[in-house]
Each structure stands twice: as C-alpha cells, then as structure tokens.
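Could you join me in thinking about how sequence relates to backbone shape in a protein? Label the sequence line and the structure token line clearly, so we can match residues to local backbone shapes. Once you have written the record down, we can walk along the chain together.
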Amino acid sequence: MIVVKLIQLGRENREYALENSSTVEDLFDAAEENFIQGNITRSHQIVSPETTLRDGDRIYIGTAVKGNQDIFDVNFLRFGDQGISLPAENGYTIKKTLEQLSDTDKEKFYRADGKLAYEFRIGNSGLPVGEDFVLNSPNLESIRIICTQRMKGNFYKLAA
C-alpha cells in the first residue's frame, strides 16, 4: 500500500491510499479528476497517466501558466488535532492560504465575529507572525505553521 498526495491550488490537499505499482491514472480515477496532459507534475516533472507512483509522492494539478511549479504545502498544526495541509505559492499570505478552506474547516480557524481564532508561529523557530505574513518556501516542499490559541490578558508579568 502506498499513500500519495494530490495537490491543487484552491483546494485542500487530498491523500489517497493506493495499491503498490499504481499509476497516475489510478490516482485520478480514485480522485474522480480528469487528467489533462501537460498540467500534471511530480517533482517539477510532467507525468503521464502511465507513470508509476511511489509512496509519499506529491502529484500537482496545475494550469498551463508561468509559476506553476512554485506550489508547496502549508501545514497548519493545532494542539489536539491532526492539522490541515493546504497548497500555496510563493507570495501567498497566511490569510490567502486559509481562504481555500471549506466552510466547515473555516469554522475551526475563525471566531463568530469573523476574526482568526489563532496566532501563528512559523516552524521550529516559534516566531509569531500575523495573517498577512508572506509565505515563501525556498525548498518548495512545505512550511509548518503552529496555531496557538489567542488569549488576551492571560500573561503574567514576573516581579523583578
């Protein structure tokens, strides 16, 4: 059994468990997507329906426009949740990336007043960033964003 991600801008990343020696065509059948020759890539290489998939492959559905290969994953990780992975391009902001969420998933990130319910911290550095932070991935693989609950007034000042 292999697990493959199907990634398309404007949609959440989808994972599929397929049999060993499955092809791109098998993936598109499982995803109920149409294969468009020249618009499907793996590791920045155009693939055909007959291309054999490997465990962990990321297959990108794109359109024939410049910059197609600058797609990477943004993993939003929340305590007690498996997190959500969304596609983005260099220059996307956190807010623009989150706009791709379905209405159900948006409820997990936004309060009733429409404001974001989380503060965001980038990867292992833990540096806090705002929703207008511009995402750029030098390795075009993925960016990890830790979502921490916003808590006004919960910080205590230590006595000197």
Summary: The two ends are 59 Å apart (CA to CA).
